[in-house]
Amino acid sequence: MPYRALSNSLIWHWCHNCSDWPLHDFLQREDKPPTWTGQALCEKCATCDGCSECQHSITLRAGLPSDSWLRVPSEHVSSQIESPKPLAR
């Protein structure tokens, strides 16, 4: 999940629909930034994420609509799985 902060800021954002989501002149990282170094996570992003309004959290929880083609009916999957064969002694 990408985290962004303005180049001159210590506040990191992860919710794309946060009103402060940086679009220009930002730093980006894929891992959660450490907060013990004086950096902070955005409170607006946390509020959106807690209310399931965060664009990013919805994608992670529900998946993208384009992912629906990846689902295979369970009866098709179970018919394709073979039982393990006993080891010869």
Descriptive overview:
The protein has helices at residues 43-50, 55-62, 74-80; strands at residues 3-6, 11-12, 26-29, 40-41. The protein is of the alpha+beta class and 89 residues long. The chain has a domain at 3-64. The strands form 2 sheets. It has a two-stranded antiparallel sheet. Strands 2-4 form a two-stranded parallel ribbon. The chain is elongated. The termini are far apart. Residues 57-62 have low confidence and may be disordered.
Short overview:
The protein has 89 residues and is α+β, with helices and mostly antiparallel strands. The protein has a domain at 3-64. The chain has helices spanning 43-50, 55-62, 74-80; strands at residues 3-6, 11-12, 26-29, 40-41.
Beta fraction of the residues? Answer: 5-15%
Quickly count the helices: 3
Percent of residues in helices = 25-40%
> N-to-C SSE series?
EEEEHHH
The tally of beta strands, per DSSP, is 4
- The coarse silhouette is elongated
* C-alpha Rg (nearest Å): 21 Å
Structural class given helices, strands, pairing?
alpha+beta
- For the record, give the distance between the C-alpha atoms at the N and C termini, rounded to a whole number: 50 Å
Reported for the largest beta sheet, the result is: 2 strands, antiparallel
pLDDT below 50 for ≥5 consecutive residues: which ranges? 57-62
- Overall mean pLDDT stands at 76
The side-by-side strand order for the widest beta sheet comes to: 1-3
